[in-house]
Amino acid sequence: MIAGGELNKKQLAELRKALAGMELPPRKRQRLIWRLAKYGVIAAVKRHVRNQESPDGQKWPGRKTKRKGTMLRNLPKLLHIREMPEIQAVRIYLQGGGYRNGEKPVPAGTVGYAQQNGMRVNVSRGSQPRKSEAGKMATPAQAKKLRALGYRVRSGKRWKKPTLGELTQTMPYAQAGLLIRKLSGKAVKTSWTVDLPARVFLGMSDDEFDKALARQLQAIGFGWDVKAQDIKGKT
């Protein structure tokens, strides 16, 4: 059994002890391990994402932005199981998702690892992919900001505050950004730190593990009368 966040060390030891004490043929033993992964670990992940909490019941840290919606809602769909009968194991892995960093694809496993463990990244402005700004005009938000900062243009012998429409139709996007930075007196950041808090989604609590093991023993026709409370503390 390979454990990479699926089972903790205690649970892994319990499972190994339970398997050692059962007279299961190799194929049935492999089937039990696969069912524990499918209907134990992956089912637990779906539950954790639905409840937005880690296996131990702790609520995940919220987003720092105003964005709403379920966090990590697509990750459970990307979990797959690889059979490894030669070593009596299965591997749970993430694949798909179409994640990208600019033009560069990002593996689902990298995204999952970052969410599971958290990470801190130092980012430089030059390393960030820039979308083409050719032909792009100032946005309404930029126009409002310029007016709020007192931006004016000459009209004959007088100075006037341009309308939102005039700004969005005549001023390039990049120029608007530069003027906003100058008028607000804010220095342009050349680097910054991004902290991603850990949102543990992969794994099972001891109670979840006990129940999953009891259910899957029943499902393969071994120990039809086994209950979770009978397993706990004995395996």
Defining key terms:
alpha+beta, 2 domains, two-stranded antiparallel ribbon, two-stranded antiparallel sheet, 8 strands, 40% helix, disordered N terminus
Describe this entry's structure for a reader.
A hairpin with a 4-residue loop joins strand 1 and strand 2 (89-94). The chain has helices at residues 9-20, 26-51, 108-117, 140-148, 164-170, 173-184, 206-219, 228-231; strands at 79-84, 89-94, 100-101, 104-105, 119-124, 153-155, 158-160, 191-196. The protein folds into 2 domains: 9-118 and 197-231, no CATH class; 125-193, no CATH class. Helix 2 (26-51) crosses helix 7, helix 4 (140-148) packs across helix 5 (164-170) and helix 4 (140-148) packs parallel to helix 6. The protein has a two-stranded antiparallel ribbon with strand order 1-2. Strands 3-4 form a two-stranded antiparallel ribbon. Strands 5-8 form a two-stranded antiparallel sheet. The chain is of the alpha+beta class. The two termini are 16 Å apart. The radius of gyration is 27 Å and the shape is rod-shaped. 40% of the residues lie in helices and 14% in strands.
Q: Structural class given helices, strands, pairing?
A: alpha+beta
Approximate helicity band: 40-55%
| Uncertain spans | 1-5
Helical stretch tally: 8
Task: Quote the beta fraction.
Answer: 5-15%
Over all CA atoms, what is the radius of gyration?
27 Å
Query: What is the makeup of the main sheet?
Result: 2 strands, antiparallel
Strand runs, count: 8
Number of domains: 2
Read across the widest sheet, the strand sequence of neighbours is: 1-2
Question: What would the principal axes of the Cα set say about the shape?
Answer: rod-shaped
Calculate the mean pLDDT score and round it: 84
Query: Which series of helices and strands comes N to C?
Result: HHEEEEHEHEEHHEHH
Terminal Cα span = 16 Å
